[in-house]
């Protein structure tokens, strides 16, 4: 593709300027040449999305500045790990099969998502929440990670103007009751210590809960949700701020809602764009190095709720470097996305990467999961700046889901209920094609 043109304006060099002016002229030309080379490889008109990102924009770069960088390296260790294998309750047995495939490795992290087709999805289906919470309670070292949409419908290509309007409503408290119901259900069903990836990948364009249409309202809305959910007695939730790695539609630092409402700084990190190396992912603006340094400065651990292969095919080097990165930083947990084209256990398209992953993870004993011993102090929600639509009273607590019989290591599970949406965020479609990617 033809790179954008760069106009270099030259002027006559005064006879009295001597070599100094000539050197300045050369530096100017050199700077212009560097700018040309830096932009030549960036396609114009590339959509800013999870699958095609890293284009440059006017607000793309915020210099790191001259401040000292915090120490981020850790002695090599095994953080709690798992895999996303599907959202509904009938995917839970896959975790046990995955562990056996890895030589009985200790998969401690279960990762699932709430669908975002309507507010009933965000409030959480009791059967699904109950079964995942029971999986968590079977072993005290386990950790449940739950992706929670902030707006609905969450994958409907909602235009920016409507997103901004919805974010304003959320910031004024008009959706509080839905998150209150979700929090009450999680506590009642045994998921009081769930890690919540609220509004994941907010710096992109895929989801309605994206940040760019109104970052100020987005941050206020996040704060409201956290305040509402932390107000429920017995909760010990942790909230994971999880953007896409790198620059997407907006620098993710512009969406950060505050240290008092964030417990973990995550990133979703896939092997893309095509032709990039792992070193590129470390050094890029808002990449892996910026993530760990930002988290260290704010006193937070990091996480990798989604990672896997993508645009560079079967790439064992990415797998090895990513696992090593997570083992040498302050990683709270990591979960690989395991369906094609990203993963290994449920995808036969990546034999070399699969072999590398098995070599690295087989027989892993995992690690103790540290959870808060007491709930954080509730945060007072931001008062509405304008009169808001009255919030309907909260319904009574949902009925208790009967605990099904268990077998060692895994609960006995009923089939998926008819109300499970086929459009659930990250689960594969019936044909095996990911619905999110």
TrEMBL record:
The active site is at residues 201, 306. Pfam families: Glyco_hydro_26. Keywords: Glycosidase, Hydrolase. Residues 409-437 have a biased composition (Low complexity). GO terms for molecular function: hydrolase activity. Residues 44-78, 382-437 are annotated as: Disordered. Belongs to the glycosyl hydrolase 26 family. This is Glycosyl hydrolase. It comes from Kitasatospora cathayae.
């Amino acid at each position: 593709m033809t790179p954008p043109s760069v106009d270099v304006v030259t002027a006559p060099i005064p006879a009295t300027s001597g070599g100094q002016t000539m050197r300045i002229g050369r530096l100017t030309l050199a700077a212009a040449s560097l700018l040309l080379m830096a932009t030549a490889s960036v396609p114009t008109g590339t959509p800013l999305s999870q699958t095609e990102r890293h284009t440059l924009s006017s607000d793309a770069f915020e210099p790191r500045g001259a401040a000292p960088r915090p120490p981020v390296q850790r002695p090599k260790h095994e953080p709690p790990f798992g895999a996303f294998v599907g959202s509904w309750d009938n995917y839970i047995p896959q975790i046990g099969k995955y562990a056996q495939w890895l030589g009985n490795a200790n998969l401690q992290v279960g990762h699932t998502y709430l669908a975002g087709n309507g507010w009933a999805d965000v409030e959480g289906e009791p059967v699904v929440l109950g079964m995942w919470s029971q999986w968590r309670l079977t072993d005290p070292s386990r950790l449940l990670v739950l992706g929670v949409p902030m707006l609905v419908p969450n994958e409907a290509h909602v235009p920016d103007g409507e997103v901004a309007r919805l974010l304003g409503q959320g910031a004024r408290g008009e959706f509080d009751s839905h998150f209150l119901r979700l929090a009450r259900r999680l506590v009642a069903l045994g998921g009081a210590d769930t890690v919540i990836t609220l509004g994941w990948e907010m710096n992109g364009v895929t989801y309605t809960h994206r940040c760019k249409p109104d970052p100020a309202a987005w941050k206020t809305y996040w704060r409201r949700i956290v305040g509402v959910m932390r107000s429920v007695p017995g909760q010990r939730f942790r909230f994971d701020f999880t953007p896409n790695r790198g620059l997407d539609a907006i620098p993710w630092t512009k969406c950060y809602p505050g240290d008092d409402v964030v417990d973990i700084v995550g990133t979703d990190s896939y092997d893309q764009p095509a032709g990039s190396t792992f070193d590129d992912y470390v050094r890029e603006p808002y990449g892996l190095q910026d993530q760990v340094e930002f988290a260290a400065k704010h006193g937070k651990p990091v996480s990798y709720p989604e990672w896997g292969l993508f645009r560079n095919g079967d790439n064992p080097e990415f797998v090895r470097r990513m696992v090593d990165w997570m083992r040498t930083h302050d990683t709270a947990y990591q979960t690989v996305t395991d369906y094609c084209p990203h993963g290994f256990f449920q995808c036969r398209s990546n034999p070399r990467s699969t072999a590398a992953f098995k070599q690295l993870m087989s027989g892993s004993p995992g690690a103790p999961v540290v959870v808060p011993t007491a709930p954080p102090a509730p945060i007072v929600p931001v008062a509405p700046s304008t009169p808001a639509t009255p919030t309907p009273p909260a319904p009574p607590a949902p009925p208790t889901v009967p605990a099904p019989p268990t077998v060692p290591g895994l609960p006995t599970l009923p089939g998926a209920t008819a109300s499970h949406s086929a459009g659930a965020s990250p689960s594969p479609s019936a044909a095996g094609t990911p619905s999110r990617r």
